[in-house]
Specification:
Blueprint lengths: L2 H13 L1 H6 L14 H10 E4 L19 H4 L1 H4 L4 H6 L2 H5 L14 H14 L10 E4 L9 H7 L10 H5 L5 H11 L6 H6 L15
Antiparallel strand pairs: 1-2
Helix pairs in contact: 1-9
């Protein structure tokens, strides 16, 4: 996994995904407002909704239909729903008298109608209970969030590289290995790096006399 792909989970682990995954506020998923779009997408892909009473799960946003959301099942139909309704309509409210169908607005073509019928069929047998809705974390066996599982998830599908041994498992003295590591990361204070930061630097290379 690249450094950028690991960043969401590492920041989420430090920044509060634990409390977000354990707590389900009224009318919606755990608050992720302090995370950027990539991190929210990671959270969305990592959670499913275990439906209970349906009073907290959002009909249009949460992944409550067999682990999938309406946006994943019927994207064209989802686009016909005003953003305000997506954030307010709960599953319990939407299933009552099929109120979810009243949220559909705008131009509805044959493809949207087809997805509407598909969604209708998928949710026809949904039953609610007195238990509270619950977010399930997919990266742990018990469904409970942990920082370790979030970080490990970012390595899914990655391959290991033994190139690090060329730097750290070597006979050279530690200071040479450390310098090699800095050079590999382009962290040595070369003249061009000093120039980019507006710091004092030689105009020409002392070794090759080139600019």
């Amino acid at each position: 996994a690249s450094a950028t792909s690991r960043a969401p989970a590492s920041r989420c682990a430090r920044g509060g995904y634990g409390s977000a995954a354990r707590t389900l506020p009224r009318h919606g998923q755990a608050s992720t407002s302090k995370f950027d779009a990539e991190e929210r997408a990671f959270f969305f892909a990592s959670t499913t909704m275990q439906l209970g009473s349906g009073t907290d799960a959002l009909f249009w946003e949460d992944r409550w239909i067999g682990g999938r959301s309406v946006r994943e099942i019927a994207p064209l139909l989802y686009a016909c729903i005003p953003k305000r309704r997506r954030k307010l309509r709960t599953v319990a409210d939407g299933l009552a008298d099929n109120r979810w169908a009243r949220d559909i607005q705008g131009t509805v073509g044959i493809h949207e109608i087809g997805q509407c019928l598909q969604l209708w069929h998928r949710i026809a047998g949904t039953t609610l209970s007195a238990e509270p809705d619950c977010l399930i974390w997919r990266w742990s066996a018990n469904g409970v969030y942990s920082a370790k599982s979030a970080y490990t998830a970012t390595f899914a599908g990655s391959t290991t590289c033994a190139a690090w041994k060329l730097t750290w498992k070597h006979w050279a003295p530690p200071r040479i290995r450390f310098f090699h590591w800095l050079a590999h990361l382009d962290r040595c204070w070369t003249a061009d790096r000093l120039a980019r930061r507006g710091l004092q630097h030689p105009a020409r290379c002392p070794l090759c006399d080139q600019a």
